[in-house]
Design a protein that fits this description.
single chain, about 150 residues, alpha/beta, Cytidine Deaminase, domain 2, two-stranded antiparallel ribbon, hydrolase
Length: about 150
């Protein structure tokens, strides 16, 4: 059996990160990659040291959980905290980024977004990505393909 593709490998990393999510509503993972090397990863969850939604429930205002930091933002903040440039990088996300994460991704200099599932794809986010020439592409995650590969090797 042939090796999994880079896209599958990095999306699998994002799927694993999503398993760390502390959000009750949606588990999301994000992996930032540069030159086929992972430079940061994140999942959606609470501020470090704060209570988690899985323990105390979501803190909802205007239909959104205000306790949760999105996976993409956590990955970008990890780059900032470690002093690693995300300029020219690619981000692999389990779900299409929200508008605010899309704006942050653009500002961070990321040039490509790969996502596995659509999720409230905001029309303005798409407009911004196209305006800025940011490639975005849905690459569905084939869990069975990865599992089959692992079983055979």
């Amino acid at each position: 059996m042939e090796r999994i593709k880079w896209e599958e490998y990095f999306m699998a990393q994002s799927q694993l990160l999503a398993l760390r999510s502390t959000c009750e509503r949606l588990s999301v993972g994000a992996t930032i990659v540069k030159d086929n090397r992972i430079i940061a990863g994140g999942y959606n969850g609470s501020v470090a040291g704060e209570v988690h939604c899985i323990d105390e429930g979501c803190l909802i205002e205007d239909g959104h959980c205000i306790r949760t930091i999105h996976a993409e933002m956590n990955a970008l903040l990890q780059c900032a905290k470690q002093g690693v440039s995300s300029a020219g990088a690619t981000i692999y996300v389990t779900h299409f980024p929200c508008l605010n994460c899309t704006k942050s991704i653009i500002q961070a200099g990321i040039t490509t977004i790969y996502y596995a599932e659509d999720y409230h794809n905001h029309h303005y986010a798409i407009q911004l990505l196209e305006q800025e020439g940011i490639e975005y592409k849905k690459i569905p995650f084939n869990q069975q393909h990865v599992a089959q590969y692992l079983l055979n090797n």
